[in-house]
Design a protein that fits this description.
The protein is about 25% helix and about 30% strand. By secondary structure, the protein is α+β, with helices and mostly antiparallel strands. It has a domain of about 140 residues: Nuclear Transport Factor 2, Chain: A.
Length: about 230
């Protein structure tokens, strides 16, 4: 009798159409109205971004290029300008600092000497940098939906070597950086060494190679880096 009663109870609570319920609970399609579904229902700030009101926007400042003169001062101002562009999310302006064959490289370890045939955190030419820019600026880029920003500090700028002069000059420059990243209520810190290979193009300094050796590259992170450090 007990088994019979348990069977009756199970039948009474059985879903008459389980396939329909599974489809409704798992498959997300054709959501009507303003209803939030999936991850948006769990974390509403992951919803696709709407354009911010004009009055709420703080215009990003594009630093001006410093005229050629004292090499160290010019290079320092160039690096400061780079950090301002990154913090201002002026991605295209940052990419334009690179030569046509320029490369942004973040190796896994300081011992790496090349990026071909070995893993790297970043190894991007200008084309791949523009692909990344297109991804993070897309209206539905979830990585950019929450409150997110960075603050760079650059110091200890040293010219390691200089060759040529005038329009044919080339400089290898080492500097230290610290970047604080705020995402929602979480703060991450990244630090390490920049090594820039700089050349002149039309009288302006441009990046032929930017190598980024992160001091904490091997640390565990909750989510991957979305843009350049």
């Amino acid at each position: 009798m007990a088994n019979s009663k348990q069977g009756d109870d199970a039948s009474a609570h059985a879903d008459p159409n389980p396939a329909f319920r599974l489809a409704q609970e798992i498959v997300i399609e054709n959501a009507g109205g303003d209803a939030q579904v999936g991850a948006q229902a769990i974390a509403p700030d992951h919803s696709p971004r709407a354009a911010a009101a004009a009055s709420a926007l703080v215009p990003a400042v594009r630093p001006v290029a410093v005229a050629a003169g004292d090499a160290l001062r010019e290079i320092e101002q160039f690096l400061y300008r780079q950090s301002e562009l990154l913090d201002g999310k002026l991605w295209q302006d940052y990419i334009d600092l690179f030569t046509d064959d320029g490369v942004y490289w973040m190796p896994v370890t300081p011992e790496q000497t090349e990026w071909h045939g070995s893993p790297s955190i970043f190894a991007e030419d200008k084309y791949m940098m523009e692909v990344r820019m297109g991804r993070v600026t897309h209206p539905t880029a979830w990585s950019q939906a929450p409150m997110w920003g960075t603050s760079h500090v650059i110091g200890n700028v040293v010219i390691e070597s200089a060759s040529g002069g005038g329009s044919a000059g080339e400089w290898i420059v080492r500097s230290r950086f610290h970047m604080m990243e705020l995402r929602r209520d979480s703060v991450r810190h990244f630090g390490g060494t920049y090594r820039h290979t700089l050349v002149r193009v039309d009288g302006q300094l441009r990046i032929k190679l930017q190598r980024v050796d992160m001091f904490n590259a091997q640390a565990p992170y909750d989510y991957v880096l979305q843009v350049w450090v």
